[in-house]
Design a protein that fits this description.
Blueprint (H helix, E strand, L loop, with lengths): L15 H10 L1 H4 L13 H23 L7 H18 L6 H17 L19 H11 L4 H25 L1 H21 L13 E9 H4 L12 H17 E12 L6 H21 L6 E5 L17 H6 L5 E10 L1
Helix pairs in contact: 3-4, 3-5, 4-5, 4-7, 6-7, 6-8, 7-8
């Protein structure tokens, strides 16, 4: 920054030099985001002090970023853009309140972030800037309300600030001076709209709950009229092993298994009820022994759900026993999510 060469406007008294030095560099004069008054920005010392204030604000942004808040975060981006437009106008010798008020907005956001609070998302028209391009403000509001905001938050934050910047120029010097900043805002909004929700993970269709049912012949599982664990036949064990393999290979998650035991109509209702319950319980124990940890419910239906009556005879002849074979079964119902 070049020095301003001008005649002194007052005569220094003895000791006044050190006093002025103290005032210029006193933390009270430019602590936080306080800039020198426009009329005081006529010395290298004052200007350097203001530049130091900008550097301090920039360092605060870096520090917050180091704590884990992304550079592209909406609020941190907005703090950066307020800082940028403030410094831009300061270096253009804007003597209005805009540089100070814009820098003050950066400070407000950073103070909230420093304290772990959520900054206000409103964008004030600092220095009583004109509200221009209502269509862009409305477009920004629309883009801020959708899920994809995180994909383009930085661009929207800076677009808002640039619209205020443009409004300040428009009020001070007209549209021609506002045009470059309007263009910046237009470009940022267009870029945000083009990005859309592209950074979001594609929606995953919810996994469909499926149910299937299969019947295992009790004759393959057990000897006639048997139901104990030691009564399981080799063929029945193989069939249950295949069921376990299917559950492990086909299902990503098995939520529930229901085992329902059935008998034929021969014998008393009480006997058949107990036999059907025992067979379902034995199959449950075998599945659990093979590592199936899913909840397994067991039900006994006795002879209440016959598939084939095979007439009305009750004498257990070989022909009748063979005919009634489909009724002797364990039904397996599986509910879960397939791979």
């Amino acid at each position: 920054m070049n020095s301003f060469n001008q005649a002194p406007i007052f005569k220094l008294l003895p000791g006044a030099g050190s006093l002025i030095f103290t005032l210029l560099f006193s933390p009270l004069l430019y602590a936080g985001t306080g800039l020198h008054q426009p009329e005081d920005r006529i010395t290298d010392q004052a200007i350097n002090a203001d530049i130091a204030t900008y550097k301090q604000t920039q360092a605060r942004i870096a520090e917050i970023n180091n704590k884990g808040i992304a550079v592209t975060d909406y609020h941190l981006s907005k703090a950066q853009c307020w800082l940028d437009v403030s410094l831009h106008e300061y270096t253009r010798n804007d003597r209005s309140a805009f540089p100070q008020e814009a820098l003050g907005q950066s400070d407000v956001i950073l103070s909230a972030l420093d304290s772990g609070q959520q900054p206000d998302s409103e964008t004030p028209l600092v220095n009583d800037a004109d509200r221009i391009r209502t269509d862009l403000w409305e477009r920004i509001a629309s883009l801020k309300s959708v899920q994809g905001l995180s994909c383009y938050a930085q661009k929207l934050a800076c677009a808002e600030v640039e619209l205020v910047h443009a409004g300040n120029e428009h009020k001070q010097q007209g549209w021609r001076h506002a045009k470059p900043y309007i263009q910046i805002a237009e470009d940022l909004v267009a870029e945000a709209a083009a990005i859309g929700d592209s950074c979001l993970s594609p929606a995953v269709a919810p996994a469909m709950q499926t149910q299937e049912q299969l019947d295992i012949s009790a004759d393959a599982l057990f000897a006639f009229n048997k139901a104990g664990y030691d009564d399981l036949l080799p063929a029945g064990r193989r069939e249950l092993d295949e069921l376990v393999q299917r559950l492990n290979e086909v299902y990503a998650r098995v939520d529930r298994i229901t085992l329902t035991g059935h008998t034929d109509r021969l014998g008393s209702a009480q006997y058949n009820q107990r036999l059907s319950e025992q067979r379902a319980g034995t199959v449950k124990a075998y599945l659990q022994a093979q590592g199936i940890s899913t909840e397994i419910q067991t039900v006994g239906r006795g002879a209440t759900e016959q598939l084939d009556q095979c007439g009305t005879a009750t004498k257990p002849t070989r022909a009748l026993i063979d005919c009634l074979q489909p009724n002797r079964r364990v039904t397996v119902e599986v509910s879960g999510i397939r791979k």
